[in-house]
Amino acid sequence: MRVARGTLRVYTWRVTLSELQQIYDQPFFELVQQGRNVFLQHWKHDEVQLCTLLSIKTGGCSEDCGYCAQSARYHTDVKAEKLMETEEILAIARRARENGSTRFCMGAAWKGVRDGDPRFEQVLGTIREVSKLGMEVCVTLGQLSLTEARKLKDAGVTAYNHNIDTSPEFYPEIVSTHTFDDRLNTIRAVQDAGMSVCCGGIIGMGESEIDRLKMLEVLTNFDPEPESVPINCLMAMPGTPLENQPPVDVFELVRLIATTRIALPKSKVRLSAGRSRLSREAQALCFFAGANSIFYGDKLLTAKNPGTNDDRALMDELDLVPQPPHACTRDTVAV
Questions:
Q1: Is 300 strand, coil or helix?
Q2: For 25-112, where are the alpha helices, taking DSSP H only?
């Protein structure tokens, strides 16, 4: 398949690596315009999903992901903390809702969860309370089986985040304590339980552009396609093996966002970690290319993020408004 200049081809999913390369390698402005056209065909043009991410259990993780400051294997400034109590989490969730967030995401620095573990039962109780606030509820708790996935869905989780990070081939270069197939097995359990999948990757870890496109190829083979795709730029954290990686080139980021939008038109594309290093103009270009979701709040799990006032000011300048909870594409809901 060859993408002719000016041609708008919309994919549902299952895009080959060759097709992804041809999309990605288009002249820059033609690629960005195509991403914009696909976005406008499927989504309200002025809406951006605002997600708040909270680390409910920070540090002390047994995994060795080379990008993560929460690993107990590395000497970083992140100290191990116990699991937050429900009332403390609820207070933060309420503030997030008041500030405009429509999705509340909770992350725990664990290898995974197991049915019957008291900590898992505590998290289930917290999810039940947060789900009463009217926001979408997303969690990222590491590996799980179908049993745990079903309990999370029953408790009120609408989406489970489990990034594949990079290509299958490059994955062993960044983590050795679990495999790429382990990631896919968790995602399969999440989908079998009826939850939406939030799954994307990280760029800037030393991978090639082909690795990034191979990651997208895997995502387009999910059935159903991911509900949302976070595109993270590595925040090189002191003390981690990747601390000396250079920042991602902004035009490479925009190319990847536009390609993701074209290949996965019905997925929310989230401009995630690394936004604190992007100018207002760079973020605007990312939105134009097809991003329609951000993490909203001055901190991600352990990294800095633009403040809420800065984000609302930028949205006002760009005439953007918060997307309502549970928003779908134009072809799945009347608009």
A1: coil
A2: 28-42, 86-98
- Top-confidence residue, 219 or 79: 219
pLDDT of 114 over the 80 cut: yes
Task: Indicate the CATH number for domain 17-318.
Answer: 3.20.20.70
Q: Which residues neighbour 61 within 8 Å (Cβ) at sequence distance 6 or greater?
A: 68, 70, 71, 72, 109, 110, 111
Question: pTM of the predicted model, to two decimals?
Answer: 0.88
Who contacts 288 (Cβ-Cβ below 8 Å, separation ≥6)? 32, 35, 36
Tens of pLDDT, residue by residue over 303-318, are: 566 677 888 888 899 9
Taking every pair of Cα atoms in the chain, the longest distance, rounded to a whole number of angstroms, is: 57
- The ranges assigned to domains in the chain are 17-318
Catalytic residue numbers read 61, 65, 68, 105, 138, 198, 270
With a CB cutoff of 8 Å and minimum separation 6, the contacts of 128 are 155, 156
